[in-house]
């Protein structure tokens, strides 16, 4: 296996190309958009497990330096009751902490890192089909051209064309009952120090904010909405109208939400929030899926990018240590399936807490403090944030990979579907 075709030039595609290069597999990235998407997306968090995955590729420093550290999370109810601090894991050996970064900056940094390492990236290449040709695989593009390689990796996101080739009956993205937006303001005096994300489960909506080192306040909201709106539905409401709706949603809550919303220009970009469990098989022939093409965890998990980074590193290890693509892909899925399912299940629980209304919200406010006292411990979240991939260790035999995964996988699938 000497050359991989990577479909999708976003975050997952760039990191996968870098990871494959580390194990001696050249990769070419093919992106449907005609230009780089530097201005796409809002802010996002990169947790320590994701940064640790990048560190195995010597790629974490650029990401760390493009964002700012937020090593602490404080959770509150809308009535002002402090629920407790959220553990964010053990800092990396070089002192790296979790970061918040603009999605556009994350994309730009990883794309530039891939280019710096010699990865070719071609734009305007929209995938139209996939063909297996003996021991090779071909990507057919809608401009009439094609590319042939030893492997084809679908890193083409939530609307993946490659996923439909791997499994036409794969799960589809599902709306989780929340829409999101956010903003940045420097027009207010911060009431907290940089380094803490304050999360408020309000009476009608969820609000989070953090202070950047330059004194700006970054914030985002998740607003319950029963039925998924279309893009037209969201843009039909003007910015000032949305601002008034947000102010009403947070009036009466003890949080900085109202002040932040009033101080921010109302040019919102709204997005419906989705998740998607992985298909039963992540691969077919010489084709395999990574990142959001394989699984989508809602933004509530804070793990979307980190799961893609882990995918890329584990896939590279398996391709390094398995002679045949099918064997490598099976080992890769076994390493990832149970962990991804657990992250999806956890995010669904958080989504239910964010979208609770009426009696459900009252019950949430009563039970949440009890839950936090019992389960919010560093040990409880070590499986997530302190997860580290030993890149140099050979991938174990299939019988011992992810020991215990088979026992929990059926339950994970049941809870995430």
TrEMBL record:
Protein's UniProt keywords contain Translocase: no
FAD-binding domain sequence ranges: 2-319
Database matches in Pfam families: FAD_binding_3 (PF01494)
Family matches, as InterPro entries: FAD-bd, FAD-dep_Monooxygenase_BioMet, FAD/NAD-bd_sf
Signal sequence range: none
Keyword annotations from UniProtKB, A to Z: Monooxygenase, Oxidoreductase
Name assigned to this protein: FAD-dependent oxidoreductase
Origin species: Actinoplanes couchii
Upper classification of the organism: Bacteria, Bacillati, Actinomycetota, Actinomycetes, Micromonosporales
């Amino acid at each position: 296996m000497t050359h991989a075709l990577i479909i999708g030039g976003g975050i997952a595609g760039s990191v996968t190309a870098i990871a494959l290069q580390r194990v001696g597999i050249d990769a070419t990235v093919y992106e449907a958009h005609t230009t780089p998407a530097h201005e796409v997306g809002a802010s996002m968090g990169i947790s320590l497990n994701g940064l640790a995955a990048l560190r195995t590729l010597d790629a974490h420093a650029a990401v760390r330096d493009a964002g700012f550290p937020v090593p602490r999370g404080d959770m509150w109810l809308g009535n002002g009751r402090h629920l407790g601090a959220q553990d964010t894991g053990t800092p990396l050996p070089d002192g790296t902490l979790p970061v918040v970064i603009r999605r556009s900056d994350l994309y730009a940094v990883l794309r530039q890192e891939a280019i710096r390492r010699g990865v070719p990236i071609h734009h305007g290449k929209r995938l139209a089909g996939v063909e297996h040709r003996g021991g090779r695989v071909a990507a057919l593009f809608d401009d009439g051209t094609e590319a042939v390689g030893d492997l084809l990796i679908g890193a083409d996101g939530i609307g993946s064309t490659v996923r439909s080739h791997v499994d036409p009956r794969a799960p589809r993205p599902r709306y989780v009952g929340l829409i999101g937006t956010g903003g940045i303001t420097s027009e207010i005096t911060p009431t907290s120090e940089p380094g803490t994300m304050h999360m408020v489960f309000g009476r009608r909506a969820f609000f989070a904010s953090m202070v950047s080192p330059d004194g700006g306040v970054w914030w985002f909201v998740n607003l319950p909405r029963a039925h998924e709106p279309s893009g037209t539905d969201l843009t039909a409401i003007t910015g000032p109208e949305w601002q008034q709706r947000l102010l009403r949603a947070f009036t009466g809550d003890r949080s900085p939400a109202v002040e932040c919303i009033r101080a921010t220009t109302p040019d919102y970009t709204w997005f419906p929030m989705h998740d998607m469990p992985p298909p039963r098989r992540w691969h077919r022939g010489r084709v395999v899926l990574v990142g959001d093409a394989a699984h989508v965890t809602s933004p509530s998990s804070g793990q979307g990018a980190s799961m893609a980074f882990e995918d890329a590193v584990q896939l590279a290890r398996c391709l390094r240590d398995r002679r045949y693509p099918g064997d490598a892909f099976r080992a890769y899925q076994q390493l990832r399936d149970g962990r991804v399912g657990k992250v999806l299940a956890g995010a669904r629980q958080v989504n239910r807490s964010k979208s609770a209304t009426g009696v459900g919200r009252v019950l949430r406010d009563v039970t949440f403090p009890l839950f936090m006292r019992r389960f919010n411990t560093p040990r409880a979240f070590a499986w997530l944030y302190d997860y580290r991939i030993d890149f140099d260790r050979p991938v174990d035999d299939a019988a011992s990979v992810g020991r215990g995964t088979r026992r929990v996988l059926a339950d994970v699938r049941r809870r995430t579907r």
